[in-house]
Amino acid sequence: MGDGAFVTAKHRLWEALAWAGIFLLALMMRIEVSFDYEAQHPLADRPVIDERSYETWALEIAAGDWFGDEVFFQEPLYPYWLATVISMLGPERIGLRHMQAGLGAVLVLLILFLTRRLFGVAPALIAGLAAATYRPLLLFPCYLLKPNLFLPIFTLLCFVGIVSAGKSGKSSWPGWALVGVLGGLGALLRGNLLILLPALLLWPPVSAKLRGRAFAGGLWGSLGMALGCLAMLLPVALRNYSVGGVFALTTSGAGTNVYGGNNRDNLYGRAKEFDWVRGIPEYEADDWRHEAERRVGAALNPNEVSSYWLGEVGRSIGEDPLLHLQILWNKLRLSLGAYEVPDNHHLEWDAKFLTSKSLLAPGFGLWGMLGLAGLLKCGWKFLRRGSTKTEDPARLEILLAFVAYLLTIVLTVTSMRARLALVPLMLPFAGFTCVELGRRLMSAKRSGPELRGWLAALALAALCVHLPVIDSERRARDFSTRQFNLASYLADEPNGLEGAKAIVSELDSQWPGSSRVINLRAELMFREARERLQSDPSQTEAVRALLQGALDLLHAVVSNSGVNLRERFRARVLSGAVQEFLGNGSGAEGHYRAAREFDPEDAGLMRGLANALMMQLGKSGFRASVATEAEDLYRAALLKNDHDQSSRLGLANVLFLQGSSSPTGRARELALDGAQAELERLRSAPGVDSNAVQGLLQAVEEARRP
Fold first, then answer.
1. What is the dihedral of CA 602, 603, 604, 607, to 10 degrees?
2. Residue 376 is assigned to a structural domain of this protein
3. Could you report the per-residue pLDDT of 446-500, keeping only the tens digit for each?
4. Is position 299 within any domain?
5. Most CB atoms within 10 A, among 2, 169, 321, 686?
6. Can you name the residues that pair with 570 across neighbouring β-strands?
7. Does 236 map to a domain?
8. d(CA 487, CA 381)
9. d(CA 310, CA 288)
10. Total number of domains in the chain
11. The whole model's pTM is what?
12. Is there a domain that residue 619 lies in?
C-alpha cells in the first residue's frame, strides 16, 4: 500500500469513527429525552389529538382490522407502521418512543451522507452534530406523530435522487424507481408531498440537462419514478374506491387542509380550530362534511366535500386577492422564523416539564439562520453565473427541493411539525456556511468581497429568522391553550380534579369571559358534583347547588349569539348531561336535540337523547311514538359503536317496554325476544351492571307469562 493510499484509508477510518460517534450521540440524547418524557411529562400516558388517533388506529390494525371501512381522511402509512412496531414490540409507548429515537439517529446519518455528498467532510460533521442536537428533533421521538417516519424517508429520497442524477441513461433507472417508491411512501405520510410528485417526475430529465446530457435520456428516470410512485399509491387508491366509491390517491382531506391555511379567519395560516370543527380527529372529517352539507343543502361524498372547500378557497381569493397574498406572506415568514409554531404540541410548553440537559441545545434560531444564509449564498451564485459548470448541480437540486417543499407549506398550513421536513435540507447549507465563513474570517484580507457577501447573506437570514411575526399576546394564547388542554385531561383522572380547577382559575384570570374556559369550569363543577354524591350521598343540597351553578354558566354560553358554534355545541351537550343527571328528561331532550343540529351522527348524543326520552316515558306513561324514536336512536348509536354497552342496555329497556305494553301477539313476542337477545349479549360484557341486566331478564320472563 502506497503512502497516499495509507493516508486516505486513515482519513476514512477517522471519518467513519466520527460518524459513528455522532450517531451514538444522537441516539443517546434521544433516548435520554424519551426517558425524561416518560417519567415527567403529564401527557406521556395521555396521547392527545393526532397522537391518540394514530395510536387507536394502530391498535385496531394490530388487532386485525387492517382494511378499514372508510375513505382515509388522515394519511395512513404512519398508523400501519406503528401497528407493525406494536406487533413486534408490544403496545408499551416507551418501546415505540425508543424505536422512533433509533429512526431519529438514522436521520442524522442520512443528513451526514447528504452533506458529505454536497459539500465535503467538514460541513458534514457540523451538519451531523447540528442534527444530533437540534432541539425539536430531540423531542419529536417522544411524540407518536408521522414526522418520525416521514423525515428519514424524505431525506433518503433527496439523497438517492442526487446520486441517481449523477448517473446517465438506463443505469440510473433503478435509482429513480427507488425515488418514486420513496415519493409514494412520503405522500402516504404527508399530503403536501403529493403536490410535489409532478415536479419529481421532471427531476431526471432536468438533472440530465444540468449536467450537459441529453434531456430525452432522463425520460428513463421519469418512467422508473412514475412506476415506483404508482406501485405505492395505486393500492391505496383502489382501497379507497372499494370502501367509499371515490378514487382518492391518499386521503380525502386535501380540500380541508388547503382551506385551513387559506381563509380570512386565519390570517397567519396556522393550525386552527374552526367554529364548526372539533379539534379531535375522530370527529374532524364528519364536522367538515356536516358544515359543507349545511351550506350546500345536499349530501356529499368525501371527494365532493374536499372539492367544496377547495372551491371556497378559490372564491375567497377571487373576492380579496390582496388579503390572500398577505396570508401567504405571513405563512412564509412564520415558516422561516425562529418561533416553533405549535399544533398538536407546543415545544416550549413541553420542555418546561423536562429536566434533560439535552434540551438546552439550539433550534431553528441558530441553525435556521445559518442554513438560510448558505441557501441564499448558493442561490445567488447560481443566479449570477447562470450556469452549473462551476458549481455542483446537486446543490442546486437540493436548494430547489427546499424551495419547493417550503411552497407546499406556504400553500397549506404552517407549523413546527410541517416545517420540520425543511431541516434535513437546511442543515447541509448550515454546515457549509460555518466552514466557508470561518475560512473567510481567517483570511479576511485575501477574500474581502467574498466575506462581505457572506456577511450580507447572514444578516439577511438573521432578519428573516429573528424578526417577530406574531405578537406576544398570540404566543401567550398558544401557551394557554396547552394549559387548557392539560386541565381537560386532568379532569378525567381519578385525583386530577383539584389540579384542573387550579389551572382553570389561572386561565380565567388571564382570559376572562372565554367561552372555552367557562365550558371547562362548568364541566369541572359537574364532575365535582358527581364525585361528592358518590362519596357522600347526603350532600344532596350542595350537589344541587353545584349543578345549578354549572347550568347557569352553560346558559350564558348557549344564549350568547357571539359564541362560535363549536363552543355552543359543547355547552349544549354538557347541559343535556347535567339535566339527565338531575333526572330532568324534558330539559335534557331540548339540549340534546339542539346539539344534534351541529352533529346529527354523534353516537353519544343519540344515546343521551334516547335516555332523555326514556326518562319521560317513565314519568308520563308509555307512548309508542316516543318509544320508537328511542329505539331508533339506540340502534343508530350501536351502528356507530357496537361496543357501547349503555346503548345496548337502553335498547333492551325500550324493547321490554314496547313488548310489555303491547297486547298478546306477534309484536309483543318479537319485542321481548329482542330485549332478551340484547341482555344475553350484555351478560358477558365487561363493566356492565350485572344486577341491572339480571333484573331486566327476570322482568322479561315475567312479561312472557300469561
1. 130
2. yes
3. 667 788 888 999 999 999 999 999 988 888 888 888 888 888 888 888 788 889 8
4. no
5. 169
6. none
7. yes
8. 53
9. 12
10. 1
11. 0.88
12. no
